Amino acid sequence: MGYIKRDMESKILSLSQEYACILITGPRQVGKTTVLRRLMSPKRNYVTMDDIPSPPTSNVSTDPALFLQMHDLPVFIDEVQYAPELFSYIKIAIDNGAAPGSFWLTGSQAFRMMELAQESLAGRTALLHM
Fold first, then answer.
1. Which residues of the chain have pLDDT under 70?
2. 125 - beta bridge partners?
3. Lower CB count within 10 Å: N or C terminus of the chain?
4. What residues does 77 pair with on adjacent strands?
């Protein structure tokens, strides 16, 4: 089966020009990762939190600042709900002037993701739901 184009693709690209961080939530298997992987440029780094605790993501919980330093911006962090420690460090990066589109995040646990985003990234992140 081929790729299914989503109406929100242009919205994602537009918001990436305005916000340093885009967070897309929704149930598993709706295409969050597929859409972003299709839209991302070759210079964007991709990291999935599904692989914890295998390297290179194993240091997320013990040293989230180092983890972010290991992955050049722009970065796409998939299933970020598995690494809630990152939110405060992403906030710091944004407050320190991270460029628009620096962080693309996905998460399949919408309620928990919204709670974390509202606590740490309020006003700094474009929130989309699939």
1. 1, 51-58, 110-114, 116-118
2. 21
3. N
4. 47, 105
